Amino acid sequence: MKMIAHNPKYGVYAATPDYVHAMEVRSPDRFLFVSGTMGLDENGSTGADLESQLRLIWSNLNRILAEARMTTDNIVRLTSYLRHASYVEANQNARLSALGGRLVPTTAIVVETLRDDWLVEIEIIAAA
What Pfam families does the annotation carry (predicted)? Predict the structure, then answer.
């Protein structure tokens, strides 16, 4: 499988350093569509704050990916649902750290989460 980032230089707004407009995935054998994943521990308890929830989310995503014999290197699309716009930078930093700086098409949306203590939810698509 080969992944090729596409960021047109003309005719569309410039991509920021943490962002890619599109990712072409050539010759994947399989896709993994992961539901929105929250910052909950294995007992279903919510992380105490934004940082702990982000750590739990990425730990949970890593475990889900491993079950499918994948890693964060297989992520080709990511959507973050943030309870508050002020979470954008922390979420961005956690994503870049978890992906080792690798860029994937991503969208962040500010929403009312199903529970007040769920601060971030992330869903991904992975390919292998």
Answer: Ribonuc_L-PSP
